[in-house]
Amino acid sequence: MALDLSTINPNMLSILHEIPVTVIKLGGSLFDLPDLESRLLSFLDEQAFARPIILPGGGRFADEVRRLDDLCGLGNPLAHELGVRTLSLTARLVAGLSPRFQLATSPDQLSSNWEADLLPVLDVAELTLQHSPLPASWDVTSDSIAAWICSLHKDSQLVLVKSVPLADSPSLSEAANLGLVDGYFPVVADSLQHLSWCNLRDKDLHLESW
């Protein structure tokens, strides 16, 4: 099953269609890392990615929405919306960690961040809810959202920054079955040409091609 991009508003996402970017998906499981700021900055400085965009996951905030959905039966549309809206909160959390991080609430703000040598942290909530073709399901988390953003240009790179290693280079489907990525990720990421992984909790930070 291929991802249908025909419904996307090209004006809103024009910069992401026009130039390749590096989407750094920052796992929400890392928010309890005491030295998250310094480890993330060290990794980004070492790699010197072209046109980086940090996209934080929902972490425990999204987990609370899951709990409420289980408890109250919110239904897929509302649960998806609330889960995606936690990404606004975590984007602001990460942007507040360092003066080098800059909150971006729209793709058209990215260029000015890069020109100022700042690392944009993208609040992707409204963009996702208004313009993405992703289904309203718990199979879709920030992993798939980051992959969708990356899929808009064939030369964009997706870097998954997680709390665990990528053992034995699993296939996309195997990784989803193991819970390393969300259930819909294999659909969105199948067309990506540049996909890599970093375990930010590792003593020796390195980038692993996937």
Note down, in words, how this protein is organized.
By secondary structure, this protein is an alpha/beta fold. 40% of the residues lie in helices and 15% in strands. It has 9 helices and 7 strands, in the order αβαβααβαβααβααββ. The strands form 2 sheets. A 5-stranded mixed beta sheet has the order 2-1-5-6-7. The longest helix has 20 residues, at 76-95.
Distance between the termini: 21 Å
User: What sequence of helices (H) and strands (E) makes up the elements?
Assistant: HEHEHHEHEHHEHHEE
What global shape is seen?
globular
CATH class of the domain at 20-161: Alpha Beta
The SS-based structural class is alpha/beta
Overall CATH architecture of the domain at 20-161: 3-Layer(aba) Sandwich
Major beta sheet, specifics? 5 strands, mixed
State the CATH topology of the domain at 20-161: Carbamate kinase
Low-confidence stretches: 4-9
Number of strands: 7
Helix content: 40-55%
Number of helices: 9
Mean pLDDT: 93
